[in-house]
Ribosomal RNA small subunit methyltransferase E (Streptomyces omiyaensis), 247 residues
Amino acid sequence: MTAPVFVVDAVPGAGTFVLEGPEGRHAVSVKRLQAGEELVLADGRGRWAECVVRAAEGKDRLTVEVTADHEDPAEEPRITVVQALPKGDRGELAVETMTETGVDAIVPWAASRCITQWRGDRGLKALAKWRATAREAGKQSRRTRFPEVAELVTTKQAAALLATADFAAVLHEDRDHPSGALATAGLPAAGSIVLVVGPEGGVSPEELAVFEAAGAKPYRLGRSVLRTSTAGTAAAALVLARTGRWS
């Protein structure tokens, strides 16, 4: 089992460091770490440190010794998923599993057929939940770089993002679509890959036309139709394997 990850604003250098606050409480009161056990401090942006516990105090204070610090470079190609807003808490499920799989960025998209709408305070709270989910899933899956969760985008804004990608695809439910399968598409070894996941009702013909004009062709995953909350994870896994990031 790899060492548990705890998030800090800035990764400390060699010497002792005191982990306090919510992360310290989790380490002391939930994980119940003891002297001699190992852990990792990470900033979620690629910097991380190997540490050994020296002492636990109270309910939320852990003193550790930093034994080594590192910086992981951003992986290539960079994988971004433009995710249409799912119903209920399936949005957090999508963010959680995509984070665990290895997606680098998640962009919430207000598709025309989305039942869920992010407006006002409700939208701000929903975005905060997505970001908190990405952070917690990043810790749980022992990532040192957590995915960025962007602001909600319109179809026009999503198209602008697709136009900058080295490869862009819209996941399509039509298994006979002439663009073919994502499993056989030509993928770049570096640069950026952007995948669009539509809502439960599918991507509208108008949205599909806008995305195709931006350079994103529709591709199918397989014979079965996946839910919007699982399609991004499946597509990301396929891309990660095909581009060598899982090798």
Remarks:
- The chain is about 30% helix and 25% strand.
- The first strand starts at residue 5 and ends at 7.
- The CA atoms of residues 18 and 63 lie 4 Å apart.
- The two ends are 20 Å apart (CA to CA).
